Amino acid sequence: MDGLAPYRARIEPEWIDYNGHLRDAYYGVVFSHAIDDFMEQIGLDAAYRESTRCTLYTLETHFHYLHEVKSSDTLTVRSLVLDSDRKRILAAGLFTCDRIVGPVAAAEAVLLHVRQGERPASAPFPAAVETRLAALNAEAAPEFPRSRKLELPRRPGA
Asked: pLDDT tens digit string along 62-81?
């Protein structure tokens, strides 16, 4: 199965701090948009969200800042699936720019599939999405930089 198309983001002038570097908060903005793009590519698109009232909630996010990003850079985020189960995804994003060889930042997030409503609750993924996630998990890059390992704890019988 094909991997995911990368997400591209242009750096906005107001995202730059007094040192001429991308403010740390804007890595989160870019990663959030990359996750939206990821959702579209795995089948959790707008039509799915509208028809099922299901979406992804972010439970936890970690960032690794590896190199300075400047106003002239364009960020590319390669989305990866590091792990998944019936209701959760451990997603990652490798941030690159043309000026620097290798990643300039990395992010990981634990995402929960939720059926929205008066009382939102976690819900299993549809079979097609589970299959897509399993295929993407098999493609996950071993070079992903991790300083503290996020993981999806397993409960017996879950």
From this structure: 999 999 999 999 999 999 99
Exposure string for 19-52, b = 16+ CB within 10 A, e = fewer: eebbeeebbeebbeebbebbbebbbbeeebeeee
The number of residues in the chain equals 158
Q: Where are the alpha helices (DSSP H) in the chain?
A: 24-42, 46-52, 127-138
Question: Tokens representing 155?
Answer: 């409960």
Tens digits of per-residue pLDDT, 98-139? 999 999 999 999 999 999 999 999 999 999 999 999 999 877
Give the C-alpha separation, 44 to 91, whole Å: 14
Cβ(35)–Cβ(58) under 8 Å? Answer: yes
Token pair 């997400």: residue = 7
The full set of domains in the chain, from first to last, is 14-138 (3.10.129.10)
CA angle 133–138–140, rounded 5-degree value:
90
